[in-house]
Amino acid sequence: MELLSVFAAAAAAFVLGALYYMVLANPWMDAAKIPKDSDGKPEGGQSPTVFVAAFVLQLVVAGMMRHVFSLSGIETPGAGVIAGMGVGLFFISPWIALNNMYGMRPLKLTLIDSGYATIACTAMGLILAVL
User: Fold this and answer.
1) pTM to 2 decimal places
2) Quick one: the chain helix, strand, coil %, rounded to 5?
3) How many domains does the chain have?
4) Core-most of 50, 53, 66, 73, by most CB within 10 Å?
């Protein structure tokens, strides 16, 4: 059951990412200084490899969260949501902020990416606790 929950959590995070960044595509591209073509899409498009790698990396996060949840006894939906939100807010978001500060990237980029990390980890936490 743990493997299924890890895949479900990673899939949910992946779908949420697609929706989140569809809504925030232009502000994110502007903040990340990604050149756009005449249609307003990233120049050169995205390689499918990026999406495969993104899903694999989300599997890694979900797998480690499942492991930590198991060791911590996190088994209820409420505990999963709080723990997942904590991972997004207090582990991943500060790391994004550090990388962006040293890279002299705009705060707007940090807020957009940290928002996604928090939402995705919260969803992962819920799914991992329920399944």
Assistant:
1) 0.93
2) 80, 0, 20
3) 1
4) 66
